[in-house]
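Entry 14. Structure prediction run on the chain below.
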Amino acid sequence: MARVLDPEGAHLAALRRLCDFRDQRVLELGCGDGRLTLGIAADAASVLAFDPDAEAVERARRTLPDELADRVAYSVASGKEIEIDPQSFDLVVFSWSL
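Output returned:
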């Protein structure tokens, strides 16, 4: 049986209390399998989500709904390696779950 983290949506709700994702260009560090990415992308203009775990990123890509495909880009990379233009994002999200 697959383990579902945050089935009640508490993590996403907490992030939404901290910031407004509407029409923002979001960089998500450590996206894992995209458990928060889809909720962020529902409001954001765009999301670049990355994680060093290639298997988790592949799971995220497989579950990306067609209607969000033009707003979400997944990448396999670590925070040390990824090359990004800091001015190309309005918000940066980092969420860590054990």
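The first strand starts at residue 25 and ends at 29.
Filed with the rest of this week's runs.
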